[in-house]
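Entry:
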Amino acid sequence: MHHPDMVVHPLLALRKFESTQVRTFDKFLPGREEFLVFSSGHPILNWQTARMKELGWRLEPLGENADGQLYRAYAPKPHS
């Protein structure tokens, strides 16, 4: 079975040779409160939005076109 995170592995390997801003999903989200997300392509390659919703992130649609959907992502509120 294809694991969606495998798409990122070649980009992470490039860091040995070139500076990149590519991070794994689990290292990117912590400490962030909001950011923009562009979602496009086949769902198997575009699993991030579904996973963010599972983790409690709120995705506000900002715009859509033939290439995909733009969202503003808001971190889950801390439990009180």
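Strands lie at 34-39, 58-65, 68-74.
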